RNA sequence: AGGAGCGUAGCUCAGCUGGUUAGAGCGCCGCCUCGACAAGGCGGAGGUCCUCGGUUCAAUUCCGAGCGUUCCUACCA
């Protein structure tokens, strides 16, 4: 075998798996299904995706090997706003506006774009090794899913759960569409607080002072509010102020919403441009004056002077004019949370418009109940609170978007503006008995992408038809997703699926932590701290990484800082670590923590681990090639029985960890078994036998058999986590050991077997390890190199110790490289020595010019001190009558045994020290 | 403001239903080119488990308060 170079085999194995259709459900066994959270067609794989999909792939591969009928359903969503934005930008580069093309032509362009560029994410998923069922891949805008969307919309409308209304919604003035609350991100920014004087009508030189962070909205004010119990203003309630610039009288109202302590205690009320004011406007029946066009320029409802100005131009003009009039009391610096559209980054405007909504309340109730009753279980459980809080305060969901790319709303209007909802125009006419003379035009808007995503688990399986797939694979078993998606998507899937399928979309929701950069910062394009998982698998030069992070930034001024940070963090770029190493890193960091700092050092560590396994396999093949590796019914020796038991134990730990989604525990168990037990001990322990020629072939072949079969089982055990290298190595295992299968993917997962537990073997090996480590410790601390042979005396050992020495002498000689090993008993000559205790037995390395007397005394002192500390603790516990009376007997007994052991050890150590000191 | 999480070795993190000599990886310090592996081997150092209380025979672990930190939700105009 060559050096470990993952890029040599990772790509080709994936192709072969896919060509051979290994990802398809087997058709046998218990159904186990997971629906992929649909990535955007526009999207590229980020670290969060790579993380989550790695976890899912291990679950899927684990279950497939367990014999389940396994489906990992692939699909993407159309990402309405994001995709339309990208294509619009491309057209802009050609000097074309979407309106030049018209709806039909524009959509053709989007589809073209999707065919050409939509596949990035699929390539990345393949590179990650994701064993998705590609053959049934779905897309939210394909015919089947569109049919499901229509069906759901129409049925909800028939039940009054979808309605149309004029409401204040979050409006993106660049994209010119409504967006949902969840697509708005508020960040604190520096701004100002302007204190404005509003003249009181009929009272010269009397003013009410209002404070605002958005002075331009004053043009749409329809009231000023004070607290009803505020003595300062009580007498003014019901009177009017004269709104400056607009020269309109507006009333002074009283409302408990007003905070008397804040600012002047007076608030300007602009019901058409603020959510709180909107509510207050409803309570007081205030008029709504909308002063903006859909691009946030000032409209004809404002004084002529400001019309057509952009909102920020208007702000400057308003301030200047008020200043001229002496109506600015003061201007203060102020930090405020500015809401920005997630996609465009522009400040979002509360905007009055006609929209479609889902009435969420009635749908939420069964969803809450499903989680309360445990039909759906969140892991970790505390995320259920997030879900409950959101669901119990759920607001109606604005589902219409003023876009072209998406599911067009199935509603038609006649010339008088009456609305007809149906699956198509013909049905609308039939349903409402409309003749052909009635002109119908379809609603121009499309549905929120999440509306179609909410139907994901069942629409992908063929609903509304009752397909065999739907029957077999729904409800799905697990949904793996980030906590930020619980409200967006998870909750909506639960609502819609219960409503239309009558069962939960999934039985378990595994909520992953969020992958951040090394400083705990959320990774984002704008911060330039994001990592592309492909760059970790395939490597990237520093310059390319810098270029990638600084291209097409929304805020180009960040480029310099991003470059500096990148050059500092990755001075040599990123090396190609391979998929297996990256995946193993993901499993290892998949703890219950909410944020997960991604540390490149760990990837390197796990790449080294892959290298270790690779080289161990190399050793196994070297030692077994061209030999008869059949078992020949020779009983395995104690070392072989030990490694089999260790492997068995690991299988047990890993299997249990997978049942509880503890990927970190599974990864740790595999890592420790392979490196600490198999490589560090077992492989070493095979060497004296496999290197020695005089031992009879049967024994050697038994050893070869265990070596190979243990490796083979280990590969199967690790395959869900390290899919590529395990396949590559497994293919080289002789068929006599691995069986005739074509791929490790379809082999059985190892089962743990209690009968393989072997306490004799584990005690024997523990003894060997103790003897070897003790000697190495003396060597290490005395700076005696491995090459220099030293004499060893086993002093005063039990019969068992003697038997073990006899049985394992060859092994010990190989591992310790002594000049000699001999057993002596009390009464025999006992030279002054460096000492290590193995239970009751003393392991002695006689003093010589190699061993420094002072160094040995220091070593003994350290050990004595350690034991004394333990002794003190044990004694104080046992000296406490409460402990002895109240603690369980086994705990007390354990403490007594411990104390006895310490005492015996201390006695020997002190005696040794005295003997040496006396020299 | 409300809610949630986190605080364990220099760094990144495990430690389940209380009893362990409190662990791992990386980093650090010694030694080692011995035929699987220097992307390695062997040995070692390093911790008031944030602070203060409480429950308990016993607290890193359970409870309360405080400090620090992160996130979510709602925002006072």
Describe this protein's structure.
The protein is an alpha/beta fold. Helices cover about 45% and strands about 15% of the residues. It contains 31 helices and 28 strands. It has a 4-stranded antiparallel beta sheet with strand order 5-4-13-15. A 4-stranded mixed beta sheet has the order 9-10-8-11, covered by helices on one side. The protein has a 4-stranded mixed beta sheet with strand order 26-25-28-27, sandwiched between helices. Helix 18 runs antiparallel to helix 19, helix 20 crosses helix 23 and helix 27 crosses helix 28. The model has no long low-confidence stretch (mean pLDDT about 90). It binds one RNA strand of 77 nucleotides through strand 7, strand 11, helix 11, strand 24 and helix 21.
List the main descriptive attributes of the protein structure presented here.
31 helices, 919 residues, RNA-binding
Topology:
Layout: H1 10-19, E1 31-35, H2 47-65, E2 69-76, H3 80-93, H4 98-101, H5 103-117, H6 120-128, E3 133-139, H7 143-158, E4 162-172, E5 177-179, E6 184-199, E7 207-212, E8 223-226, E9 240-243, E10 248-254, E11 267-269, H8 275-284, H9 311-324, E12 328-341, E13 349-358, H10 361-372, E14 377-379, H11 383-392, E15 397-398, E16 400-401, E17 411-413, E18 419-421, H12 425-431, E19 441-442, E20 446-447, H13 449-453, H14 456-459, H15 468-473, E21 476-482, H16 485-500, E22 506-512, E23 514-516, H17 533-538, H18 542-550, H19 559-569, H20 579-589, E24 595-597, H21 600-624, H22 638-659, H23 663-691, H24 697-718, H25 723-730, H26 735-738, H27 759-781, E25 790-795, H28 799-816, E26 818-824, E27 833-838, E28 841-846, H29 853-879, H30 881-886, H31 889-917
Parallel strand pairs: 1-2, 2-3, 8-10, 14-22, 21-22, 23-24, 25-26
Antiparallel strand pairs: 4-5, 4-13, 6-7, 6-12, 8-11, 9-10, 13-15, 16-20, 17-18, 17-19, 25-28, 27-28
This protein binds one RNA strand of 77 nucleotides through β7, β11, α11, β24 and α21.
């Amino acid at each position: 075998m060559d050096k470990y170079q993952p890029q040599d085999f990772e790509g080709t194995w994936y192709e072969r798996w896919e060509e051979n259709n290994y990802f398809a459900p087997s058709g046998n066994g218990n159904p186990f299904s997971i629906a992929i959270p649909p990535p955007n067609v526009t999207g590229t794989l980020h670290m969060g995706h790579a993380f989550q999909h790695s976890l899912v792939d291990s679950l899927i591969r684990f279950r497939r090997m367990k014999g389940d009928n396994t489906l990992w359903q692939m699909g993407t969503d159309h990402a309405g706003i994001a995709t339309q934005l990208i294509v619009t930008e491309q057209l802009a580069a050609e000097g074309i506006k979407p309106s030049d093309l018209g709806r039909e032509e524009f959509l053709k362009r989007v589809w073209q774009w999707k065919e050409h560029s939509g596949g990035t994410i699929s390539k990345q998923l393949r590179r990650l090794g994701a064993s998705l069922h590609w053959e049934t891949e779905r897309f939210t805008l394909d015919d089947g899913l569109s049919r499901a969307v229509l069906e759901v919309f129409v049925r909800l409308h028939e039940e009054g759960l979808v309605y149309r209304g004029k409401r204040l919604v979050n409006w993106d003035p660049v994209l010119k569409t409504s967006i949902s609350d969840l697509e708005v991100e508020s960040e604190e920014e520096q701004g100002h607080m302007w204190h404005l004087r509003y003249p009181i009508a009929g009272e010269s030189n009397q003013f009410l002072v209002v404070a605002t962070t958005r002075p331009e909205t004053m043009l749409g004010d329809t009231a000023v509010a004070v607290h009803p119990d505020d003595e300062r203003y009580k007498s003014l309630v019901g009177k009017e102020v004269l709104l400056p610039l607009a020269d309109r009288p507006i009333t002074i109202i009283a409302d408990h919403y007003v905070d008397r302590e804040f600012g002047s205690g007076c608030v300007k009320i602009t019901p058409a441009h603020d959510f709180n004011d909107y509510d207050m406007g409803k309570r007081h029946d205030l008029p709504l004056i909308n002063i903006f066009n859909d691009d946030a320029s000032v409209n004809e409802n404002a004084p002529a002077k400001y019309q057509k100005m952009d909102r920020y131009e208007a702000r400057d003009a308003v301030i200047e004019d008020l200043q001229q009039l002496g109506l600015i009391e003061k201007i203060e610096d102020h930090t405020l949370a500015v809401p920005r559209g997630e996609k465009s980054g522009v400040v979002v405007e509360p905007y009055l418009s006609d929209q479609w909504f889902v009435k969420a309340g009635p749908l939420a109730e069964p969803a809450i109940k499903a989680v309360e009753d445990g039909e759906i279980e969140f892991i970790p459980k505390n995320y259920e609170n997030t879900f409950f809080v959101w669901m119990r305060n759920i607001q109606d969901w604005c589902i219409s978007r003023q876009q072209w790319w998406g599911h067009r709303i199935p509603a038609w209007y006649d010339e008088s503006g009456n609305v007809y909802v149906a699956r198509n125009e013909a049905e609308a006419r039939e349903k409402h008995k409309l003749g052909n003379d009635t002109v119908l035009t379809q609603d121009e808007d499309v549905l929120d992408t999440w509306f179609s995503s909410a139907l994901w688990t069942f629409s992908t399986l063929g609903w509304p038809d009752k397909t065999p797939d739907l029957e077999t694979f729904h409800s799905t078993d697990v949904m793996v997703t980030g906590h930020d998606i619980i409200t967006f998507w998870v909750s909506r899937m639960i609502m819609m699926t219960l409503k239309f399928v009558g069962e939960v979309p999934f039985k378990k929701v595994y909520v992953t932590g969020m992958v951040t950069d090394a400083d705990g910062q959320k990774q984002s394009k704008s911060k330039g701290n994001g990592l592309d998982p492909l760059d970790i698998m395939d490597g990237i030069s520093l310059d390319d990484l810098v270029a990638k992070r600084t291209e097409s930034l929304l805020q180009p001024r960040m480029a310099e800082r991003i470059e500096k940070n990148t050059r500092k963090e990755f001075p040599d770029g990123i090396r190609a670590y391979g998929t297996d190493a990256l995946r193993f890193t993901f499993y290892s960091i998949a703890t219950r923590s909410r944020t997960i700092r991604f540390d490149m050092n760990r990837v390197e560590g796990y790449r080294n681990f892959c290298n270790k396994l690779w080289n161990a396999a190399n050793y196994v093949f070297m030692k077994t090639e061209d030999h008869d590796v059949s078992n020949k019914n020779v009983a395995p020796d104690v070392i072989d029985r030990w490694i089999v038991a260790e492997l068995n134990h690991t299988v047990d730990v890993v299997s249990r960890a997978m049942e509880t989604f503890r990927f970190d525990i599974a990864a740790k168990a595999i890592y420790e078994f392979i490196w600490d037990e198999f490589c560090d001990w077992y492989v070493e322990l095979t060497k004296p036998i496999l290197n020695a020629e005089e031992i009879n072939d049967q024994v050697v072949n038994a050893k070869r058999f265990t070596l190979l079969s243990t490796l083979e089982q280990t590969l199967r055990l690790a395959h869900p986590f390290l899919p590529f290298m395990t396949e590559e190595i497994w293919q080289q295992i002789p068929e006599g050991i691995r069986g005739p299968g074509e791929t490790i993917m379809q082999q059985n997962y190892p089962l743990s077997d209690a009968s393989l537990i072997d306490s004799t073997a584990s005690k024997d090996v523990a003894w060997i390890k103790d003897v070897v480590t003790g000697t190495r410790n003396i060597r290490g601390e005395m700076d005696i190199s491995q090459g220099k042979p030293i004499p060893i005396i086993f002093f005063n050992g039990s019969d068992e110790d003697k038997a073990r020495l006899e049985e394992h002498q060859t092994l010990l000689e190989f591992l310790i490289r002594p000049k000699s090993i001999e057993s002596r008993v009390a009464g025999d000559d006992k030279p002054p020595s460096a000492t290590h205790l193995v239970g009751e037995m003393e392991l002695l390395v006689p003093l010589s010019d190699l061993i420094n007397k002072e160094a040995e005394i220091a070593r003994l002192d350290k050990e004595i001190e350690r034991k004394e500390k333990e002794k003190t603790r044990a004694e104080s516990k046992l000296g406490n009558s409460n402990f002895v009376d109240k603690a369980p007997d086994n705990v007390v007994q354990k403490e007594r045994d411990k104390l006895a052991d310490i005492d015996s050890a201390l006695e020997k150590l002190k005696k040794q020290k005295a003997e040496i000191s006396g020299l």
